[in-house]
Amino acid sequence: MITARLACAVSGLSFIAACEGTQNVLAPASPDARLIASLSWWMFALAVLILIVTLGLLLVAVALRRNGEARAISRRRATILVVLGGVVAPICAIVAVTVSGAAIGDETEGGRRIDGATVRVAGERWWWEFSYLAADGEVLAVTANELHLPVGRRSRILLESDNVIHSFWAPNLQGKTDLIPGATNMLFAEPEVSGEWRGQCAEFCGLQHGLMGFLVIGEPPEDFAGWLAAQAEPAAVTSHPGLGVFLSLGCGECHTIRGSTADGEIGPDLTHLASRRTLAAATLPNTRGHLAGWITSTQEIKPGALMPEIVPDPADLQHLLDFLEALE
Amino acid sequence: MSDARPLEGSQRDAAAEFAKLERTWQSPEGFLGWFTHVNHTNIGRRFVVTSGVFFLLSGILALIMRLQLLTPLNDVLDPETYSQVMTVHGTAMMFLFAIPAMEGVGIYLVPLMVGARDMAFPRLNAFGYYVYLIGGVTFFVSLPLGLAPNAGWFNYVPLSGREFAEGYGVDIWTTMITFIEISALTAAVELIVTIFKLRVPGMSLNRMPIFVWTILVMSFMIMFAMPSVIVASAFLMMDRLIETQFFVPEMGGSVLLWQHLFWFFGHPEVYIILVPALGIVTSIVVTFSQRPVFGYTALVLAVVGVGMVSFGLWVHHMYTTGLPLMGRSFFQAASAMISIPAGVQIYCWIATMWGAKIRFATPMLWVLGFFAIFITGGLTGVMVASVPFDRQVHDTYFVVAHFHYVLVGGAVFPLMAGLYYWFPKASGRLMDERLGKWSCVLVFVGFNLAFFPMHQLGLEGMPRRVYTYLPGLGWDWMNQLATLGAFTLAGGFGLTFWNAIRSLRRGEIAGDNPWDAPTLEWATTSPPLNCNFARQAVVRNSEPLWTWKEENRRTVVDGLSTTRRETIVTTLLDARPQSVQILPSPTPWPFFSAVAASICFFGLIFSPWFYVIGVFATFVTFTFWFLPRKREEVV
């Protein structure tokens, strides 16, 4: 798993920003996911055992016919078989499932100590907005589709939606929880090691549900603090020919670039776009070529996406790309 | 009534009387006559055939989806079409195939199994069928027109609400659901009454075939579960058409309310499909082991138990919605509890078959496939009952694998077994054994190829209901395997369809009881007489045909009219003769009622005036339907 992640980080050439094992229930990277993974392994093992025993008995039952003579089982033995297989074994299973489920549920859904970040996740169609909150609820920084978390700390993720239901799921870190309009849900994420994982919307939310992904990046607390401070800053470049193009094309109606007059709230905040690793909800790597492609052929890449296709003059496009790439 | 009359009373009078009786029960011929049929064998056959066609069509949709998912970022289907195809596949498999198929099997077999000449309300039966046919066809036609719903078969709000689902798709969905509900409720009511009141003398409740018990439980489940989805779909319809705001949070509505109402119906619905299948399996296990079932009472209690418990676990579809853990913990216990009745049944069947001389004909082969697949699906079912595990695999391909194991294993395999088992009764000809066995093997292999890798896909992070996925996540080869399996599976089902069509003309002549089965449906000719039974039987245990064979005589009832449609009514518990019910004759009015009701509901999507017109039109047709006829003689 680690090698897979390394390979992904090293190559960086893959057309797509996705890597094997980075979105995997059985490759846990947090205490919560680890507990659930071991619960899973236990259940698989027991299920296979029960399957073998039951089907084995079935085979014995249908194959047991000596010298072509039918041999009935005695009533008493049959009763014992039914009681053991049909009552005793299931009751054991029920107790095991209920007790382990309640205990592990309590452990993984609990907020024992919250010493990490507090992030408000807004599910949009079809991307994710991450707002980092201070203790008093003030918004420190807003970003999209890339969730940074401090390693070894337990962060609180608040889940909200003002449109349809989405479900926030980064399987290497935690089970999923839905974003329900009209309610705020919560889950906790606690990466144990530095790394990059992938998450994806798990509740059908319309046309681009299938490609509504995000990245989770676990980094040492110091790095995280530095990243957060940088994200809280306004844009690095506020006078650039590309910004003029950006505004004249109307991009600012939907997107915000803090420090400029672009203050739209429909699409992702682009203030630090160049610092992100992916585009289009963790679908494309963030390179100049893909950026140009996303702007000019949005509907080809993601049919139904709410962003309109914009095809500026070639010169304007180069200015625009220069500008966007400068938004470190 | 005579208790022990030999069957061969071959006087000329008797033959003439019999011919008269058959004329009385004859359904009108010709194209126009088709719309007047009310005999349960005709209606049941129509239900089964129609649901088979919907199964075929929905299966083709599944293949198209598997083609789209064959490779990452494939473009066989665009997202909008994929959403529609996915929604129609799920909805049609559940509402247009599985439920009507089970109802159809019940409608066809229950009167035969309880020895009745028809169902309690034959015209209502016909009405239920037309409503189903019209609703189903309209729903399916919406797909090629591009008007199909695209919010999934579960149709969660707000995605299916006014704001996010424009167009007529969701309205067509809610309307179709209403139709299927009506059809299912009519079937449930008449199945219950038929089972309770029209059993032949001597068939006390504890002598009823297990299959009849399962149909009884299914019918009660329909009666209790359907109202919930009627409420939900009516609320949604009103939200969309007249802005009632039941599900709009900004106006004090609740989006979770939809999920509660939908799954309060939706979970029992799975068992509505499963329970009759358990009855089919029992019938076949008994016949092919040539033994009475072991643990009759335990089996009946288990079936009733499944029916009851299934109403207490809908929340396991909502583990990730943020409900308090304490509450969810009760539901994980309740969900796992289903394993008790399921285990009792499985081990009762094993005990029945233990060491028996089993005849491995095609129906039995499908039943063995049922065991392997259904038990696997049941075990993953116990896993997803666990809250923490479910929070990982919920809405992933793991769940897709799980419920296909349960539904295909638990319902389609038994239905196929039932098809091979009862086809000779319905058509008079046996299906081809060689083709049947090939079909079973292909379906079994194809099914496991298609769905087993999906467990792994889910664990490796692939969510459900995605129209495409990115390369590099390690999902590619498993998806290719799944597509390969899906086509193998389809080939297997294709063989059975071909087999059925071919055997209608060329199959070996079956005779009355080709499998040496013990229950009453095999006591009449194949296909059954117009009147089902020339003389209704009297039974003394749950395997009357085996007893008759041993004693070499039949016990029958005599004295019913041959010039009008009559069947014996008995007491509820002990089946003591009580009176005779006069059943109605063929009529086209249920068809007209169904058409009027369809105009009412489908028109409502476009204008409220259709509702007014439809209600009056339906009333008029009902009047003619219930208009008393002059009778030549009075009872």
Task: Provide keyphrases for this structure.
heterodimer; A: Immunoglobulin-like; Immunoglobulin-like; five-stranded mixed β-sheet; 8 helices; B: 635 residues; mainly alpha; 2 domains; disordered N terminus
Please give a structural write-up.
The complex is a heterodimer of chains A (328) and B (635). Chain A is built from eight helices and twelve strands. Chain A has 328 residues and is an alpha+beta fold. In chain A, helix 2 runs antiparallel to helix 3 and helix 5 packs across helix 8. Chain B is mostly helical and 635 residues long. Chain B has two domains: 576 residues, Cytochrome c oxidase-like, subunit I domain (Cytochrome C Oxidase, Chain A, Up-down Bundle); 48 residues. Chain B has a two-stranded antiparallel ribbon. In chain B, a hairpin with a 6-residue loop joins strand 1 and strand 2. In chain B, helix 8 packs across helix 14 and helix 18 packs antiparallel against helix 19. The N terminus of chain B is likely disordered. Chains A and B meet through helix 2 and helix 3 of A and helix 4, helix 10, helix 11, helix 12 and helix 13 of B.
Question: Judging from the principal axes of the Cα atoms, what is the shape of chain A?
Answer: elongated
Provide the domain count of chain A.
2
Q: What is the overall number of helices of chain A? A: 8
Query: Quick one: biggest sheet of chain A?
Result: 5 strands, mixed
CATH class membership of the largest domain in chain B = Mainly Alpha
CATH homology superfamily of the largest domain in chain A: Cupredoxins -  blue copper proteins
SSE run of chain B: HHHHHHHHHHHHHHHHHEEHH
Describe what is shown at a glance.
The complex is a heterodimer of chains A (328) and B (635). Chain A has 328 residues and is an alpha+beta fold.
